[in-house]
Write a structure and sequence with these properties.
Number of strands: 14
Strand order of the largest sheet: 1-9-13-11-10-14
Distance between the termini: 38 Å
Helix content: 25-40%
Shape: elongated
Order of helices and strands: HEEEEEHHHEEEEEEEEHE
Structural class: alpha+beta
């Protein structure tokens, strides 16, 4: 019995190996979301960032406000793919200005609510601080308790001051959006903060999101200089998900564009995909798919996309995870 069990196991393993070796072609891949890197076409200074990492955005949303220095005779001739806030005669530009002013006014109103609530809480903290001081003087509480309460009060006071300063800047920005010609004046608040060292004037402009998605990462901060070669932020497109697959060179005759393949994820989930693109030339296989102490393996790369919207929604849960691609040879 033991002999026959071992024999059947060996024969079964051999049959399974031959079946997969000669009837199927396999490849390793990684699930990726399309990542769009945002750069400017000229050296600029970032003035205000309207979105944070992880925020959802739609096409046409304002991403950040930036300042481009220019000589006076060049100010009206600057062109860019982003919205120029000096174009107030355009109906599209005016609609954008009105939307931005509304967003600014909403932000100011929310900040005022926070200021009111924090002020009430600050008054309560100050009364509590006075009580703690009296108890510390009587040795009823340790001095560390007084320091902690004082730090909390100072932090709250600083937060209120920051909100008030933010409202002042937002109100100034709204005023400039109502009258964009102020941006051209040397005594403009934006020009004062951006050109006092160079003596040059320029335009403040808002960069509009070219696509919808999620702000994946911010590479620049407010008031930081952004060169033309610098990435400012990246947008992750949730509707553009695919698998970067790496086939061995010997299997190049066994797959074509538009071929349907089976996709297996790490948790055992099975899905379907279609090969949409084959890359010319060969590429080094990623390290996670390489065997240690073996020379780098050159592979043929391909992009595998979900077969339908249902598959696409399923793939989103496996972002940056590995997947196994299988295709029947015949």
């Amino acid at each position: 019995m033991v002999y026959f069990v071992v024999l059947f196991l060996i024969l079964g393993s051999l049959a399974y190996y031959v079946f997969n070796k000669f009837l199927y072609v396999k490849a390793n891949g990684q699930v990726l979301l399309d990542n769009l890197m945002i750069r400017l076409t000229e050296d600029s200074r970032i003035l205000k960032i309207f979105k944070a990492e992880g925020d959802s955005i739609h096409e046409g949303d304002s991403l950040f406000l930036y300042f481009v220095e220019a000589r006076a005779n060049q100010l009206l001739g600057i062109s860019d793919t982003s919205s120029n806030i000096s174009e107030k005669n355009s109906s599209t530009g005016r609609a954008w200005v009105e939307r931005e002013i509304f967003n600014i006014q909403t932000k100011i109103a929310l900040n005022k609510i926070d200021i009111t609530e924090n002020s009430k809480l600050l008054s309560k903290k100050q009364r509590e601080l006075l009580r703690i001081k009296n108890q510390v003087m009587l040795d009823a509480l340790p001095h560390s308790r007084l320091e902690a309460a004082q730090n909390e009060t100072d932090k709250m006071r600083t937060d209120i001051l920051k909100l008030q300063m933010a409202n002042t800047e937002l109100a100034l920005l709204a005023e400039q959006l109502n009258d964009p010609e102020k941006m051209l004046k040397p005594d403009s608040a934006v020009n004062k903060s951006s050109t006092s060292a160079t003596g040059m004037m320029g335009l403040a402009r808002v960069f509009i999101a070219p696509v919808g998605g999620i702000v994946n990462r911010l590479f620049k901060s407010e008031y930081e200089t952004a060169l033309r070669t610098d990435d400012i932020l990246s947008i992750q497109r949730r509707d553009k998900i695919f698998i970067k697959a790496f086939f061995e060179q010997k299997d190049i005759d066994d797959f074509r564009e538009e071929d349907i393949v089976k996709v297996k994820f790490p948790d055992g989930t099975i899905s379907k995909g279609v090969i949409k693109r084959l890359y010319l030339g060969t590429y080094d296989m990623p390290e996670e798919f390489q065997k240690k102490y073996e020379p780098a393996q050159r592979t043929v790369a391909a992009d595998v996309y979900p077969l339908d919207s249902a598959q696409s929604n399923q793939w989103k849960f496996f972002h940056k995870m590995n997947a196994e691609i299988t295709k029947f040879k015949f």
